[in-house]
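quick one, 161 residues, struct below
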Amino acid sequence: MTREEFTDHVEREQAALRGFLLALCCGNRDEADDIAQDALVRAYLSLPTYRDQGRFRSWLFKIAHNTFLNHKASVKVTESIEEARQIAGQAAADSSFEHQDLYLALRTLPPKERSAITLYYLSGYNIEEIAKITDATEDAVKKQMSRGREKLKEKLKEKLL
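---
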């Protein structure tokens, strides 16, 4: 793939990539942009490994997902929505999101569960595609989604009470 072809692909997928990372970063635009930039650099440097089979978005999302996991490896997962709110602060979280509590609840999930939930519900990938993007088995993805949904349900229920 030439540099121009790569640029064309990135321009077509940029909005989807930003949306995916913005959800993974729980509305923190600066963090999502930093990870997107790192992911795009890694993708460009990995072009020799790309096999054009009409799956550029999945390939790019896989790189972005791995970049996100590497970025989050040293970050502590928060326990509650209130703790997430304190950490995020007003400046870090995008206050224009109408689903702020959902993003704060997502912040409490471990990165792999957050990724599975985000890819399925916000990006529209199926279990098989998520397994390929995250380098996990389909059973592992199903377990991550199940655990993630239960944790989200509990966190959001706590918020409502």
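Residues 3-160 form a domain with the Butyryl-CoA Dehydrogenase, subunit A; domain 3 fold (CATH 1.20.140.160).
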